[in-house]
Structure prediction request, 509 residues.
Amino acid sequence: MSGSKHPALITASVGLASFLYSVDWTIAAVALPHMQGTFAASQDQIGWVITSYIVASALSIPAAGWLSLRFGRKRLFMSAVTVFLMASVVCGAANSLEVEVMARIVQGLGGAFLIPLSHAIILDTYPPEEQGKAMALWGMAAVMGSFVGPTVGGYVTEYLSWRYIFYINVPVGLLALAGVAIFLPETARDPERRLDWFGFLSLSLGIGSLQLMLDRGGQMDWFESWEIITEACLAVLGLYMFNVHCLTAKQPFLDPRLLGRRTFLIGTVFAFIYGFVTTPPMVLMPSFLDQVRGYSIDAIGLLQAPRGIGLFAAMVIGGRTTGRIDPRKSIAFGLLCLAYSSWEMSNWTADVGVWPLVWTNFMQGIGGGIILVPIQVIAFPALEPHRRTEAAAVYNLIRSLGASIGVSGALAMFVRTSSIMHSQIVEHVTPFNRALQAQSQHGWSMATIKSLAMLEREVSLQSATLAFTNDFWLFALVALAALPLLLFVGKPQLVRGAGERAEAMVIAE
Prediction:
């Protein structure tokens, strides 16, 4: 396909579609407090809006190669955009959490194909000497979503409704769809190409059951519930069948033997940790800013923007320094940024100011962005070129699992910790507490219904603050715990070419 008639228009079209997919990772996080009120959902339940999208995307990505060969790349790309847009409309119109989550699953299933297909389209549209520049331009569009998503989501939610964060996908998506339909040529199809359905379905069963168990565990009191026990058994069964099948099949859905390569295994471990440490704060911060600090939703969007700015700047720097700096040093620096910023966040109080919110979010973005390319430099160059597409699917699957498990675990821990802290604080709220007596002139007493309501609000506020900071402390520990893994990495093969650097920069998105 190299030498297409309209390469710039093709790049713009697939870049718009990639932007839509990435923006929907972050734009919904800002609106979660408003969606929680609409659906009368608990803190852990509303997290399904994020985790369902992540898990569905993770499961779909490995099937992109087969579907592209079976039905044609252009047809698959247009179908993926269409499904994404239709699901976006349903997301905006949903009147229950169940419908919202199902629509987000469909949105993730369709949107997941956009990044790998765009990647392949750009490489085939340009000759080798121009691929580096084209991939860099497309890569910027692909990551811009995390930069503008929170800010746009905040303003749209504040001045229109949270439903419009999904409706605004439609005009942009239709523009991308028209560009692809008009300018993108079709690829050859292979109707005889077969998918390993047993491997795909067993992996879907294992991961889907695991995620459902994590999402509902706190609500159902974990293994005191037969539902959670059943989901745990299905998760173990599905993952066991998947691994046994993939180790014995001639053409498995995904080859787990890739994890036998030491550098690739370590790279995927870092990818899991990356997802675990960077995604949950993005989900927790809007709730913290809303529940604890009481900011308006547009202000929350602005306060989330420094994370996107840091991520964008770090990915640009990371892409340019790849091949010049030992990736182990970059990863160590990024993990330290994540650990230090999370530790600072763990010391926040209910009165934390604007500046700590800004710089810690910026540091989170710097830490997350700076390690993306170096992780891939460790993981991929040692693999044979013909195995890198499958390896990229495994890599993205594990990274997405880290993100979804991190979000579910953080929300479950938040609910449990806030309940425990609330009960412990209440034990000290008595008429005989001298600290409470000393504040009686400010209305802090147990004498009237109004003062009791004030006390209850303050107890809930402080218990929520402690629960949030407890989660941030966990992320700091995980980031620090990952540092010793760098000792098991030999001196990686450096990526020197501009085209290789640009390709590496976007493979994880």
Observations:
- The chain has a mean pLDDT of 80.
- The chain has four domains: 1-194, 196-252, 256-412+469-509, 419-463.
- The radius of gyration is 23 Å.
- The chain has 20 helices and no strands.
